[in-house]
Each structure stands twice: as structure tokens, then as C-alpha cells.
UniProtKB/TrEMBL annotation:
It comes from Zoogloea ramigera. Residues 235-380 form the Helicase C-terminal domain. Keywords: ATP-binding, Cytoplasm, Helicase, Hydrolase, Nucleotide-binding, RNA-binding, Stress response. One of its GO terms (molecular function) is ATP binding. It is found in: Cytoplasm. Residues 437-467, 556-595 are annotated as: Disordered. One of its GO terms (cellular component) is cytosol. This is ATP-dependent RNA helicase DeaD. One of its GO terms (biological process) is ribosomal large subunit assembly. PANTHER family: ATP-DEPENDENT RNA HELICASE DEAD, DEAD-BOX ATP-DEPENDENT RNA HELICASE 47, MITOCHONDRIAL. Gene3D superfamilies: 3.30.70.330, P-loop containing nucleotide triphosphate hydrolases (3.40.50.300). It catalyses: ATP + H2O = ADP + phosphate + H(+). Its main location: cytoplasm.
Amino acid sequence: MTATIERFDQLDLQAPILAALAEIGYETPSPIQAACIPHLLAGHDILGEAQTGTGKTAAFALPALDQVDINQRNPQVLVLTPTRELAIQVAEAFQRYASKMPGFHVLPIYGGQSMVVQLRQLQRGAHVVVGTPGRVMDHLERKSLNLEGLTTLILDEADEMLRMGFIDDVEWILEHTPTARQTALFSATMPDAIRRVAHRYLRDPKEIKIKAATATVSTIKQRFLQIAGPHKLDALTRILEVEDDFDAAIVFVRTKTATVELAEKLEARGYAAACLNGDMTQQLRERVIEQLKNETLDIVVATDVAARGIDVPRVSHVINYDIPYDTEAYVHRIGRTGRAGRNGNAILFVAPRETHLLRQIERATKQPIEPLKLPSREAVADKRVAAFRQQVSEVLASEDLGFFLDVIAAIEEKHDADVHTIAAALAFLAQKDRPLQMPDTGRPDIAQLAGGGKPERPTREARDNRSEILERRRDYAEGRLARYRIDVGREHMASPKDIVGAIANEAGIESRFIGQINLFEDYSTVELPSDLPNDVLQILRRARVRQQLLNIRLASPEEASRERGGRGAPPKKPFRKEGGFDKPACGFKARKPKP
């Protein structure tokens, strides 16, 4: 069945879903997608053994979307995930795949998010609910989550839910769902406890086992940089300037539109760059590859599909500008460097909320990825000055400068200036388009904002006292919380994930007891239990987020009532898209970077 499926349009999916996939840039189903989607569309249950990152989210999301009735607002699909990060990732994937389905709504629910907000969203209706077991149980207990119309139930990363002690919760949820549902269970491994759940709750499932591609070339040096999205372009150009062994690079992004936009921005900064995507004719693609080979191009910005089969030995670097959701895609990407016995470099940009994807890649490839320290302004300036000196040395050694000596003598006589001052003026003119000194903007250097550490995922003990656990959850669900102020906000580049991690790790407060977080410019507010002991408060006062002391204390009435984005909150800047969709495909102006 899977051998003949080479394109998504060969699958019996609705036209709006296929249109969304085409816009995203998906063309060829991964092995698990080709194996699972036909069975799920046919109504079969699935027992899938596949590593995280093999493309299984699309394998279950696409057929689930295909069967959603947009006119029915009660949840029809429920996806259980072990962590809030994965719940958000899966919900975002559903939203992307359903972008051409007007009226579609997906709702992620997880601990640490305001229960009031979730209740309001559930009342409005959602076609798909993606949640962690604990919070789904909370809503089922409160009867705020109605699963009478549920047609599809998906268990994602079942072995991880077992490891974290959620498997009893999962079974409890399964017992409170309609028996006539379709069920898909995915797990990287199949321990006995998972098989027991599958045999008990799945009906004659089709078993599918996919091996992930894990081999990576030993000559490829793999590094990652934790960097927020707005700083990616500056980080990329710094890396391109400072890497000693840089020759040529393939920069991978997720979408066809992004290839055009990023290639244009790199060209504007003086790099010989071009895009490569599925909208280009085969002739244009071949032209780009040929220019990369003959050194008239140094950087190609590409999507996964467009870059397949590229074999250019001079490619010294592969930059994952957008982290791939699929670990097999990562392996294929970095295989574009380190060719013909040469050493290669693979650099991965990771946004703060994408660290779970980094962990997935490391698990799948069985190789650690080292943190990369972003070059500072001073390091970039030193590199530019060194390159400028080298260029001057080469000219002194190889060029006839007689005519120019006469020009300088005339300037010296007319302006009564010494040759050193004239040389400095000429150096200033030569570096005007690409300053030797990087300007100080007055803001923190992005080298200080970029990080490389990976937070450890906390583990949970197995649950052996269900009644006590449910009672504690009811306490939380009924809002026995107070709002506290902490001295860290947007200007410190803090995120809700940073704040939750600090509170959970430093004070031992489980994430389900952390409520709504509102970020403001120079401070934030967070909901925590109202009866925190003094020793816990003392710990939190000394805790740090982004090198900033939390200094936690109860929020004032004004601070407690101030909502994120509401009255008194910093105004949101209007979204401005650089470039546009009406521009022609990126050009192929070949020019070397200016010194």
C-alpha cells in the first residue's frame, strides 16, 4: 500500500486539506504518513510504533481533520499528549493543516493555563481538543468537556505518558469516552503496559512500525543556538561572517515563501544568495545548483523537498533556520554537508519554546548537539577588520599603485593632510556599506540574549492515591489562587515557559498549580496558591529568570486586575510583513559578500 503513495494528492483527503499542505510546502508523505493515513481514513484503529519526529502528527491529524464536521461545534477529536509543549505543538499543527477550512477551531488545554480562560473557550466550542491527561481529567470531572460527540481519540507518545506516571489517568479518560470511537495509539516503544492498554481499548488495530533514520555522518559537527525568532537574521549573518571554515551554505526554512523572503534579505546584506523551492521550474532549480557548484552563489535558502538530492562538495554549512518537526528531515538536511570525505557543520536555530524538538532530534539521532556561543559585536568587528587588513595586504603585494599614489599626493597637498589621515578617510569610504565597527544600538547585544542550555524535563512519580490527587486538582480548578508580581518581563526577554520552569524547579511547585501568567514590559504577574509558606516565598524571591531576580510578592489590586494586552498593557505593534507575496521568485544576482 505504502510503496505507491508518493504524493499527498494520491491520498483521499479533502481539497482544503490538500491546499493547505501545498501552501505549507508538503509534497511527499513520510513513511508513517503513507502507512497510517489510508487505514485511518478507512476507519481502522491504529497501533503505531514510531519515534517522535517521524511525521506522525500529520499521520493522525490529516485523517482526523478529513472526518471533522465543521457544523458540529462539540469536540469530535481528542488528542492526549504527555506535556504542555507537545500539546501546543500538536494544536498548532492542526491549525496549519486546517488553514483552508473556515470556521475550524482547535483548543489546547493543559495545566498552568488559566482554568477560566479554558472554560470560556470550551463554551464557545472546539472541533479538536488537544490536552494533557491531568487537565482533561479536570474538565471531565467538572463536566465542562463534553465528549458525547467524540469520533476519534489519539494517544500520542504513550510510552512517555507511562514514564511520567499518567497511564492510569489515560485509562480513566478512555473509560469516559464513547465506545464507538476510532482510536490511534502511537508510541516510540511498546512496553507491556502500553500493549495492555492497546489490547483493552483498541478494536482489531492495524499495527504499523516505522524505523526512524538515525544515521548521521561522523564528520559533521552539530551545534545549536537558542535564539528568539526576531533575532534569527542577525544571528545568521554573524555566524556566516565569523565561521573560519565557511565556504558555502544551505539554509533550511519551512515554507516556500520564507525561502524568497530570507534570500532577499541576505542579498540586501551583500551575500550571494538565492532561493530554492517547489514553485520554481526544474530549469531554474538546476541553474541555482550549478551556480552553487561554480562558486557564483554562496548561500541557497531551501525547503526540504526542493533540496533533496543536492550533492555539492563545497557546502561547508547546513543552517536549520527553522527547526524541522520531523527528525528524519533533520538527518536528511544535515546530510547535504560533510560530502566527499570533507568535514561539515550543522547549526540548528532553536526558539525557547522549541527545546522539546531539540531533545527529540538528540534522542532519535542518539547524538548530543553542542550549544553554540553567538559571536559578540566585538568578535564580528575583529573578523571584519582582519578581512580588511588581508585585502589591503593582497593589494599591496600584487597591484601597481602608481596612479593612485599620484592621486593621494594631490590630496595631501591640497588639504594639508598627512597620509595616515587620508588612508583613514579612504578606509571609511571602503567600509561604508558594511561597517568595520558594528553600531551600538543601546539595546542588549543579541549575543547576550542567545542561550544554549537545555532545560531538564521534570519527571513525575507514579500516582497511587487517585482520590487525593483529584481533590488537589479540584482545589486548583476552583481557583484557590492569588496573583503575585515578579520583577521580570518582556524587556528581559522572558517567556511564560521561563517563569514556569523557574517556579517549578526552584520552589518545587508543580506546573498544574501555576495559573495564568501575564507578561508586561518590566514585570509580570503569575497566579500561584494563595497559601504559599514563607520559606517557599523566600526561595522564589531569590530565584532568577534571564539573570533577573524574581523578587516575588503579592500583586497590588491594580496589578492583579490588569490583563495582558488590556488597559494599561503595552500596545501591540502592528504586524508588518517585509517584502510581499506579489514579488517574483527570488533572483540569482551572484555577488560575493562585501568586506
